[in-house]
Write a structure and sequence with these properties.
It contains 14 helices and nine strands. It has 301 residues and is α/β, with parallel strands linked by helices. Strand 5, helix 6 and strand 6 form a beta-alpha-beta unit. Helix 4 packs parallel to helix 6, helix 9 packs across helix 11 and helix 12 runs antiparallel to helix 13.
């Protein structure tokens, strides 16, 4: 059966996914509350819809790529939501990062309508969405996963099937975000420490980049800091703050000590208060203020 794809939520991640879905030859219908985002979808070759219900009526697989669990619930179960429009045998793919309990709460109402549910948060940021190189952490029935995989391959490079239990995708993502958020704060602190002690920022970048801690995460993050690019780079500080809150909530529920992640969460809380429009690396400006220095350099030298 031909796959007519839908997507709800056309932010930085959603619009990048939409581009690659269309590029790979799938018919795409999308919805977002912002008119300018619907116009962007139209220019990509997608079909704008007036509601989540309309997306569901025109699609047999729909990605839900909104910000949080409340928005996911509204898109799926609210008035003019997906359950009002999707046909039996269709599939809802929750690709947003939300609390495991929130995606698990969708299972009964979705399955009772004869609709499949896929729990697959993604990682890779704006660049991954733009380039079709996202990482998927997918929990659903194996036959549903196999059916969806050709569409997933349009937007993802690494697709991990982690079983049929809804919620396992979100639990995997929460664990990953604890690692990523803690890594970010270690990068911020180490750069500020070195510069405060008199080491040029570009020297720190070059040394760290050829050491055992070198990674694409470090290189991308540190480069933006040295270039003083703190907004509209595709990784909003509010998103990571929200995600770390999910990680800490899961830690509390499971009785896990998370000292490093807790410190990262508090630093992101402070950073979000000071720089609500900034991206993750904005936090370094808080540490710079305390140290009385600025981390900047010329990577061409």
């Amino acid at each position: 059966m031909k796959k007519n794809v839908g997507i709800i939520g056309l932010g930085d991640m959603g619009i990048g996914m939409a581009k690659n879905i269309v590029k790979n030859g799938f018919e795409l219908t999308g919805f977002d509350l912002r008119a300018e985002r619907l116009e962007m979808l139209s220019k990509l070759g997608g079909r704008p819809a007036a509601s989540s219900r309309e997306v569901g009526e025109n699609s047999n697989i729909v990605f839900v790529m909104v910000l949080n669990g409340e928005q996911v619930k509204e898109v799926v179960m609210g008035k003019d939501g997906l359950l009002d429009g999707m046909k039996e045998g269709s599939t809802i793919v929750v690709s947003a990062t939300i609390n495991p309990s929130e995606v698990m709460a969708l299972e009964e109402p979705v399955l009772s309508k004869g609709i499949n549910l896929v729990d697959t948060p993604v990682s890779g940021g704006k660049s991954g969405a733009d380039n079709g190189t996202l990482t998927f952490m997918t929990a659903t029935k194996k036959e549903v996963f196999d059916d969806c995989k050709p569409i997933f391959e349009a937007v993802a490079r690494d697709i991990h099937y982690i079983g049929d239990k809804i919620g396992m995708g979100q639990k995997t993502k929460a664990s990953l975000q604890a690692f990523i958020g803690s890594s970010f704060t270690a990068i911020f602190e180490s750069l500020v420490l070195g510069v405060k002690a008199g080491v040029p920022a570009d020297t720190l970048y070059k040394v760290f980049s050829t050491s055992g801690v070198s990674s694409n995460l470090f290189k991308g993050c540190a480069k933006l800091i040295l270039e003083r690019k703190f907004e509209k780079t595709g990784s909003h500080i509010g998103t990571m703050y929200k995600d770390l809150g999910i990680s800490m909530g899961m830690a509390k529920k499971n009785g896990c000590m998370m000292n490093t992640t807790a410190a990262a969460y508090e630093l992101f809380r402070a950073g979000f208060s000071l720089f609500p429009d900034g991206d993750n690396w904005s936090i370094v400006k808080l540490l710079e203020q305390i140290a009385g220095i600025e981390v900047k350099g010329n990577l061409e030298v």
